[in-house]
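Appendix B, Record 12. Input sequence as logged:
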Amino acid sequence: MLPNILNEEDRKRALDELPQSSPGPVIMTAEPKFVPAQGTEITIGESEIPFRIRFADCVGYVIDGVRGYEDEDGPKYVHTPWHSEAIPFQEAAKIGTDKVIRDHANIGIVVTTDGTVNGIHRQAAEVAEEQIVQQLKEIGKPFVIVLNCHMPTHSNTMALRHELLEKYGVPVIPVAIDQMTTKDMEYILQEALYEFPVEDIEVEKPDWLDVLDYTHPLNVTLSDAVGSVLDSVTKIRDVSLAAAELRNIDFVEESEIERVDAGLGVATVRITFKPEVYKAVCNEWLDAPIDTKKDWLLFIKEAAEAKQAQRRFRQAIDEASDNGYGISLPTLEEFEPSEPEIIKQNNFYGVRMKASAPSYHIIRVDMETEFAPLIGTEFYANQLLKDLQYSYKHDRDQLWQTQLFGTTLHEVLQEGIRYKMNAVPPNAKKRMRQTIERMVNEGERGLVTFII
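Logged structural output:
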């Protein structure tokens, strides 16, 4: 943890605050120590999961075989913040340890022994070991057990490890503490931190997925995969497995653990997609695939022009859709001014200037078309009627795709509407435009129409 304290002053202060230790079974800790004052971020495991951590060192439970809690007159008496008078050292140690476990720690590393170190028998450690483990389980604090031993790989040690594993149901790590390496410490921390429960997994996916509908195959596949993974995740150690499972999805390139909030039980997994996936999604919306940079720029240019036009006419189209009539007003660039001139009215003079600009009037015309083919016999007519009625009631999309003489119903009806559109003569269209211009510019409120 010390190399990860970036501020030099904070690192020196943490070194000064480290609790003292002593060889053998002599107790040196007199009160709980919290190092450093603020948590430090470290990464643990091959996945380099980030955690913010600080250590709380406490005396623990006094057991037979240890020294340092008595003097020549008997048990030492110490003052604590929780009592007005001094109390025996071993009682204070137990109270302080319990308070650290309950109030100041998110996770515990329980250190016990197999009876091969410091001259302390295995039986002496069992009672305190069981009491602390029971307390941790009652309050729901995650923890691991470090089995301090002279020979961690010995058959007797491994047998005891399996026994404790079966008894307590948590990771048990045999290690010779007086010969412990940085790698051993990293493994202990990894196993301890992996015991944190996970309540939720947040998945950071590419932001462009939000543009796609939730029913898009990419979103559906990813949502189903995350849902199935969540069912199997209960602890932080499961998050790495979950990330590996998400990596097995065809279109996922990488799935990494971004951060872990052990206190809240929330893990964040960041997913990146294979580059070709984005291109494939873009091609779904294109008339033809775009491969070159030149083609992409041309497409972007056309899209920008279309967006500008859409922004101008969007409101008019919405008004026409709702009310039957919508107007798109001209832009500043479209105004064409006339030359200003002096005007006189009675004995008063003024200035007049006209300007013209195109406006677009969008009219909703509800067109009707009819489909009435002669099939032949009554039997075939009834059969067609039955098919059309079923599609009309249950599947409109299928209704429009009904084949009639080799052509879909939609194409037949569309052709009828196109014929009606072309039936309006050009001079009639011109007259309608002139009529609207006169109504707008001259304020004509009345309109008499003769349709011949």
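Residues 29 and 327 are 84 Å apart (CA to CA).
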